Amino acid sequence: MPRDHAPILASRVGRYVEAPPIRRLLSHFQCVWISLVPLDHSGPVAVVPDGCVDLLWRDGRFTVVGPDVTAATPELVPGSIVLGIRFMPGAAAKWLGQPLTEIIGREVPMAEFWGSAADRIADRISATSSARDKLRVLQELLAAEAPRVEHPRQEATMIFEFLRADASAEERKIKALRERLGVSERTLRRQCDELFGYGPKTLDRILRFQRFQALARTHAEKGLAPLAFRAGYADQAHLTREIQSLCGMTAGEFVRQLTT
């Protein structure tokens, strides 16, 4: 795809700040973040898959963004503020009360899950002025709900971290994961569907892509072939196909955007 037509990674648009959540939310959420969209921005951005689920507030709306299998391309309003809070692995289903398989690749109004309570949260956030105050209000409102929500299952973090850290071949890795958990292939698939929205092979594919991103940000000068091998791809061609499929751009363009 020619560079002029390549999507723009969301990380390159405006200013993005990430921080730990308040202590009362640490069992349920990985981080909170703010994205400030520049006034001269136009068009969609590419938000690449990461195996995670986020709650968002933007343009007065309170939504949940389900686990993606390809890049999402939301339209961002110039000059707007986007707030996010990212669930811990396996935590989102407990808060939503529905399987994550229902929201794969979708941004869904939280009113569909929480009714008028979600609208009140959106209104409370909208009523504050600064981005910092909006994020504080979001966290305080979620913290009030947290005692009523079951903590994520321990195996969720174990599955996520095991697949994220291991760059060995998929079949060998998933077999080792099943042995560690002491479960059958069918049980592992059912658990991953419940915790992440899709099976272990899809989750592994996305986390391998995330592993490549981390390597490319710090070692891009080594070239695509060595980075592909270290990330767990069969070869550079495999990497190239996966990046095109997952985020709609060439591997070279993707690395360029990550590193410039």
Query: Structural class of the secondary elements?
Result: alpha+beta
Query: How is the largest sheet built, in terms of strand order?
Result: 1-2-5-3-4-6
Approximate helicity band: 40-55%
Query: Total number of β-strand segments?
Result: 6
**Biggest sheet details:** 6 strands, antiparallel
| Radius of gyration of CA atoms, rounded to a whole number | 19 Å
Beta-strand percentage range? 5-15%
The backbone outline, from C-alpha atoms, is globular
Low-confidence stretches: none
Order of helices and strands: EEEEEHEHHHHHHHHHH
How many domain regions?
Answer: 2
Q: What would the average pLDDT be, to the nearest integer? A: 92
What is the overall number of helices? 11
* Termini gap: 19 Å
Explain how this protein is built:
The structure is a single chain. The protein has 260 residues and is of the alpha+beta class. The protein has 2 domains: 3-148, no CATH class; 154-259, Arc Repressor Mutant, subunit A. The chain is 46% helix and 13% strand. It contains 11 helices and 6 strands. The chain has helices at residues 92-96, 111-114, 116-126, 131-145, 154-165, 170-181, 185-196, 200-219, 224-231, 236-247, 251-259, and strands spanning 15-19, 29-36, 54-58, 61-65, 81-87, 107-109. The chain has a 6-stranded antiparallel sheet. The longest helix is centred in the C-terminal third of the chain and has 20 residues, at 200-219. It is globular and about 50 Å long. The mean pLDDT is 92.
